[in-house]
Amino acid sequence: MTSEVGAQPKLAAVAAEPQTPETTERYDPHAIERKWQLVWEAESTWVVANPGSPEFDESKPKSYVLEMLPYPSGEPHVGHLKTYSVGDAIAHFRRRRGFSVVHPMGYDAFGLPAENNAINTGEHPREATEKSIASFREQFMRWGISIDWTREIGTHEPAYYRWTQWIFLKLFEKGLAHRHEAPVQWCPKDQTVLANEQVIDGRCERCGTLVEQRNLEQWFFRITEYAQQLLDDFDLLESWPENVVTMQRNWIGRSEGAEVVFRCEDIDLDFPVFTTRPDTLFGATFFVLAPEHPLVERLAAGTEHEQAVRDYVNESARATVEERADEERQKTGVPLGREVVNPVNGERISMFVADYVLMEYGTGAIMAVPAHDERDYEFAKAFDLPIRRVIEGTDPEQAKDEGLPYSGDGTMVNSGRFDGKHNREAYDEIIDWLASEDRGKQAVNFRLRDWLVSRQRYWGAPIPILYCDECGMVPVPEDQLPVLLPEIEEYAPKGRSPLAAAEDWVNTECPKCGGKARRETDTMDTFVDSSWYFLRYLDPRNDEECWGRDVADYWMPIDQYIGGVEHAILHLMYARFFVKALHDMNLLEAREPFANLFTQGMITRDGAKMSKSRGNTVSPAEYVERFGADTLRTYICFMGPPIKGGDWSDEGAEGIFRFLSRLWRLGREVAERSAEGGSMDGASGDGRALLAKAHWAIDKVTRDIDPRFQFNTAISAVMELVNEIYRLKDGLYDDPVGAAAVRFATSTAVSLLFPFAPHLCSEVYEWLEGERVWEQPWPEAAPQLLERDTYMLVVQVNGKLRDRIEVGSDTSQEGLLELARSSENVQRHLDGKAVAKEIVVPGRLVNFVVKG
RNA sequence: GCCCGGGUAGACAAACUGGCAAAGUCCGCGCGCUUAAAACGCGCUGCCCCUUCGGGGGCGUUGCGGGUUCGAAUCCCGCCCCGGGCACCA
Description:
Elements: H1 29-42, E1 62-67, H2 78-96, E2 100-102, E3 106-107, H3 112-121, H4 125-143, E4 153-154, H5 158-173, E5 177-187, E6 192-194, E7 199-200, E8 203-204, E9 212-221, H6 227-232, H7 242-252, E10 254-264, E11 269-275, E12 286-289, H8 296-300, H9 306-318, H10 321-325, E13 334-341, E14 348-353, E15 365-368, H11 374-383, E16 391-392, H12 396-399, E17 411-412, H13 423-436, E18 440-446, E19 451-452, E20 454-455, E21 465-468, E22 472-475, H14 503-506, E23 507-509, E24 516-519, E25 523-524, H15 526-529, H16 533-536, H17 549-555, E26 560-564, H18 570-584, E27 597-600, E28 603-605, E29 608-609, H19 620-627, H20 629-638, E30 646-648, H21 650-673, H22 685-705, H23 711-728, H24 736-753, H25 758-769, H26 783-786, E31 790-797, E32 800-808, H27 813-821, H28 824-830, E33 834-841, E34 845-851
Parallel strand pairs: 1-2, 1-26, 3-4, 12-14, 26-27, 28-30, 31-34
Antiparallel strand pairs: 5-6, 5-9, 7-8, 9-19, 10-11, 10-18, 12-15, 13-14, 16-17, 20-25, 21-22, 21-24, 23-24, 28-29, 31-32, 33-34
Helix pairs in contact: 1-25, 2-20, 3-4, 19-20, 20-21, 21-24, 21-25, 22-23, 22-24, 23-24, 24-25
This protein binds one RNA strand through helix 7, strand 11, strand 15, helix 11 and helix 21.
């Protein structure tokens, strides 16, 4: 059952024997789908050559269409079906629009679920994962997704993670990967540290357990080095959903302000703080440190508060992230018995420790301005500390003390020589003054934290680092990569990585001095694997280098990326960071990985998120069995705009099945009752009307697919066309020109529907045109058939519809008015009233405004 | 609390630029085909009235309240509800 990724999977191994479609009397999706899938496989239809290879076609522009790679666990679900249906429609559309499209597939195969399964069942994560991969691959083939299978990869394969490790070493070389002790989020259930991004509401993203804080030596990637560039380079993107950009912006969290140094003379130390409000410095009446601040102990030592401080710090350490973040909770804290000097006025203010100050942000210390900050105000009230207003709002209410805390703008008071100035004006002056005194400077702070990448888990790429007693930390030499994941007996973590138990593997030789060395036993976060996979697709069998530079530069950036909005921050930002770092190391031309991003909405059932426990899942495999892949894919794209979610309905899917059957029957009938290659010249009446409808559909579908991703209305337009053919066909067959129009309209319908229902459309197109629809250029709407000779003029009186008149398209404004006025019903409404105004919008309407 | 989406018929939706509200699909109803049913084809599907049965007329309507405009689902102001993101970030 397991299979090697990249060994060109064969459909013949996974599908049943075909039937001959021609012999069936009704639409048989399975026979048709099987037939075309075998054709695509036999002819390697979707394989695309790289520059430098003999098959490379340099005449076409390139397009890299990519859906987020799946995490293989069990079988694919409806979300996967949606992602790949949407992506495949785009891939097909672009191919037929003349692009050379690369559309690969792979698996994000390392990760916790497979490992948790291993802990429970003893089954090797590789076994479970590869079983799942086989199932995903089979489904993708049955869905008929147009994938270049020669580029298939799995991130758990040594041939892949060798290069994950290689990139790690490059980052290490550049100082972008580093190891240090840090307070980290620890999940006591999974027994591992988590990235900030994997903590949701203080709980482990995977298992929901409350997260604890621990101080541990960990590996980090310095994504913070790129904080500003990650913001600036949004400008380089072509089209990203605005909400995703906003979410990333908020996550990066840039704040401008000042760093101001407060001095504690008692112990002769400087305490810098970051503030966005240097204009309120004169209002600072106390000073607060985070409980984790490294100098807290030293400050309290020897004071009467020593024990109380120690207790408070310990208590804070025990509290969960969630408890501390609860805003409803009363502010807590303890005095330190020390003072610092406010640099603007020389005032000595008391120091406190309080857990509302976060060590992770800024310097872990703040100046507290209770008059102008909500949190400081609450703390001052709770501890009865002085509150001094330094800004007065213009609103008289705000000038009084009831208006506190006041965070708006206004006139400075109690601020020495800045009194009377507007606070915005004083803002920069205060910073300049502090800078000249060497007590502060302008500063920018980011909310973004460095990316914690080490995991004390088995099923991941080993971190390629050694520890030698003599030489210290030593990177594994490139020619010794990959560092293979060893086989182990026991997957359950016990506070250290399961790899630590593989003694033979851990103990090794130092490549520098030849002495004894131990391997790093942590593995990498799986987000590392998925931060560069799109580059490996481009050159997947290269074992000399990570990717050929020419090849990667040719295909990158990804022209269209498609996936769930749940990856708006994590995956998308990590991948952006990787590409920037790789660019700066001169390994890649691109600065951004995803030029265009499309995020799809989630499919629910009975209005709720699908889940096994709720028992409301939709199994794609089951429905493919019932209706065929074309029906499912088309239905998914039809249920609503793909950007939005939608609620699954069996009746809806049946409706699409009926529609495809109707199209199939139409195809059969038209193939029988009209001749191939007939001329449509001089079509008139219904024949011409049908041609006009077909061209209308071409125009509509084309515009709906490309910039808009409005697949639902594109499919509706094809339905309208099919309905129109049914209405008119019986009156047209007898005349050769009319019959040719019917044939043209029908083959146009299947040609337009092909991106959504590729198998059926290939079949019907072959009957009608004897060609392969995917080899045909996308149809173009003829302008002369889009223009109408006449249109329905809407006539309103006081904005109310009173008549509709068919008028010639070239009728003048005066002509329109005259025709409108002559309408019987309009006259009835105009009768005896004075026309105050006449509005004429040629091509649309005439509106008479009357009085009385 | 802050920042984004969204609210249209019985359901999902369409209306891209301020111009006929509701295309298309589902559900429901009727007719045809059929011994019958399914399937299929055709039609109806906001309310009221007239009809010679071809159709015609009136009214209402896009979460609620106001405004701008000849004209608003669409723009502006206020509010209600639903979904998502962030949240002691100094």
